[in-house]
């Protein structure tokens, strides 16, 4: 797991990359600040962190374009 700063929507953002994670997730705050277009998730699911009983329903998704140095890509989150 490591932290990196990359460009998302033309703005610099701090990103955590975790190779052990099964999901690509973005905070609702980030989605709102970057004004990303959300769509309904075809198969909603719940995610939880180490804190027991703390689950979040993921029922929306968005496509995020990002850049790390000269590498550019898109990911569905």
Provide a descriptive summary of the structure in words.
- With 77 residues, this protein is mainly beta.
- It is 8% helix and 56% strand.
- A 4-stranded antiparallel β-sheet has the order 2-1-5-6, with no helix packed on it.
- The protein starts with a strand and ends with a strand.
- The model has no long low-confidence stretch (mean pLDDT 83).
- N- and C-termini, Cα separation: 18 Å
Largest sheet: 4 strands, antiparallel
Q: Which overall shape is indicated by the principal axes computed on the Cα atoms?
A: globular
Beta-strand proportion: over 45%
Over the alpha carbons, how many angstroms does the gyration radius reach?
Answer: 13 Å
Strand order of the largest sheet: 2-1-5-6
Helix/strand order: EEHEEEE
Q: What is the number of E strands? A: 6
State the helical fraction.
Answer: under 10%
Low-confidence stretches: none
Instruction: Classify the secondary structure makeup into a structural class.
Output: mainly beta
Question: Number of DSSP helices?
Answer: 1
Mean pLDDT: 83
Offer a concise description of the structure.
It contains one helix and six strands; from the N terminus they run E-E-H-E-E-E-E. It has 77 residues and is mostly beta strands.
